[in-house]
């Protein structure tokens, strides 16, 4: 089975042989439901609230997944986290370069000011990347986005 389900919070579920799409969606609807409330005499004081299944989880194809409005925000968040992680590694490397520049032995002959400028550029990267990622509406484009190139 290759069926996929996406939940309203962007989680993707691959349906295995042990269950069906309908069963999984039903489980999500049940989990999102609010049970009825009753008074001490057993009279219903507040009815149960059962959301429409299409607002909780839906079956989706791989093609639809690339542009689904529940998936795209998660893809942006995940890509931004990757960009931050890569940036943090580069910032640590620049700490060493800064020390070398301070000692006047930078292998590339850079000054402290030049290394500091590189660090500032890296620190400015996440807000710039987020702004650009917010314009992308396809997970392929989001994954391919490289703010450095």
Oligomer: single chain
Biggest β-sheet description:
3 strands, antiparallel
Structural class: mainly alpha
Radius of gyration: 25 Å
Distance between the termini: 39 Å
Task: Report strand %.
Answer: 5-15%
Task: State the order of secondary-structure elements, H for helix, E for strand.
Answer: EEHEEEHHHHH
The residue ranges in which pLDDT falls below 50 over 5 or more consecutive positions are none
Global outline: elongated
Number of extended strands: 5
Tally the structural domains: 2
Which features characterize this protein?
single chain, 149 residues, mainly alpha, 2 domains, two-stranded antiparallel ribbon
Write the layout of secondary structure elements.
Elements: E1 4-7, E2 12-14, H1 21-32, E3 37-38, E4 44-46, E5 57-60, H2 62-65, H3 72-102, H4 112-123, H5 125-133, H6 139-144
Antiparallel strand pairs: 1-2, 1-5, 3-4
């Amino acid at each position: 089975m290759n069926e996929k389900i996406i939940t309203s919070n962007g989680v993707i579920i691959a349906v295995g042989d042990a269950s069906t799409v309908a069963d999984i969606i039903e489980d999500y609807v049940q989990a999102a439901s609010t049970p009825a409330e009753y008074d001490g005499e057993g009279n219903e004081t507040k009815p149960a609230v059962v959301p429409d299944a299409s607002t909780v989880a839906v079956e989706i194809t791989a093609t639809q997944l690339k542009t689904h409005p529940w998936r795209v925000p998660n893809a942006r968040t995940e890509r931004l986290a990757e960009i931050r992680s890569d940036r943090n590694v580069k910032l640590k490397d620049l700490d060493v370069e800064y020390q070398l520049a301070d000692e006047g032995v930078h292998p590339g002959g850079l000054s402290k000011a030049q290394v500091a400028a590189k660090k500032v550029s890296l620190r400015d990267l996440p807000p710039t990347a987020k702004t650009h990622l917010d314009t992308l509406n396809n997970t392929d484009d989001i994954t391919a986005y490289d703010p450095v190139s």
